[in-house]
Design a protein that fits this description.
The protein is an alpha/beta fold and about 260 residues long. The protein is built from eight helices and eleven strands.
Length: about 260
């Protein structure tokens, strides 16, 4: 299965429980195209995978030497303090097996609360041998332990959002993009507050360049304007509406993808 088949309007992604709008898949595809045009290589990952709706899409964008990593509390829902998301490992793993095919040989996961993780845990997980049902299925041949795409959709508290941004910023390649779910969502104000604290901290390593379709997009400092400009130039056939805005003292793009 490829990305286009998976993300089609009535594609396999609709068989999973999740909250991603179709426009998110268009946005991720465009960001992937920008990265490939700039020879940006790296793994993909997600904190808070639920049933794998977005994770499988990210994994389907990987190419030779790029792996995927899922981080979730899975069945240990006592650690899901704000009751955001929530699924079982068996459901998630079944979807991964069905959707990403051979790419699962470069797939691995961490079961636990992201608050307990350090960057070295994430880097080590990518380079270790992936396994299924406790059986190693082959050596991991990822060409890097760093990431070019990383979705943050775990705990929606201020503490979790800040922690996850600080965690992920230290494992990204230059030009890597971080996708934060539920920006400005009225039910999850902790996400917006956490992003506000992060984006106004001059020590932060990532800068926001766009938001829309319930997501905010950040990249490494030196690539922010290039990504923003590239999204502004998107053709009308993939964009419903867009506007140049100023937020956190930076030029950004609000964009609503089809």
């Amino acid at each position: 299965m490829n990305y286009e088949e998976y993300t089609a309007p009535q594609g396999p992604w609709t068989t999973m429980d999740g909250w991603n709008a179709e426009g998110v898949f268009t946005a991720v595809k465009r960001i992937n195209e920008i990265q490939k045009g700039r020879w940006i290589v790296g793994n993909v990952g997600e904190i808070g995978v639920h049933e794998g709706q977005l994770f499988c899409a990210l994994a389907l964008l990987t190419e030779t030497g790029e792996g995927s990593l899922a981080i979730d509390v899975f069945d240990d829902q006592d650690r899901n303090v704000d009751q955001s998301g929530g699924s079982s490992f068996d459901v998630f793993r079944k979807n991964v097996d069905t959707m990403i095919g051979d790419r699962q040989r470069l797939f691995n996961y961490i079961e636990g609360d992201s608050l307990a993780l350090e960057p070295r845990n994430i880097l080590a997980a990518v380079t270790s041998a992936p396994f299924r049902d406790g059986i190693i299925i082959g050596p991991n041949t990822c060409s890097t332990d760093r990431f070019r795409l990383f979705s943050i959709d775990g705990g929606h508290t201020v503490v979790h959002v800040l922690n996850d941004l600080r965690l992920v910023e230290r494992v990204m390649v230059p030009g890597g993009v971080v996708i934060v779910d539920d920006f400005m969502h009225p039910k999850w104000p902790g996400v917006t507050e956490g992003l506000h604290i992060y984006c106004t901290d001059r020590a932060s390593r990532l800068v926001p360049f766009a938001y829309g379709n319930n997501k905010m997009y950040l990249t490494t400092f030196e690539h922010g304007e290039a990504f923003r400009a590239a999204l502004v130039d998107c053709s009308a056939d993939i964009v419903k509406a867009a506007a140049r805005v100023s937020l956190y003292g930076r030029r950004m793009t609000w964009i609503d993808f089809r």
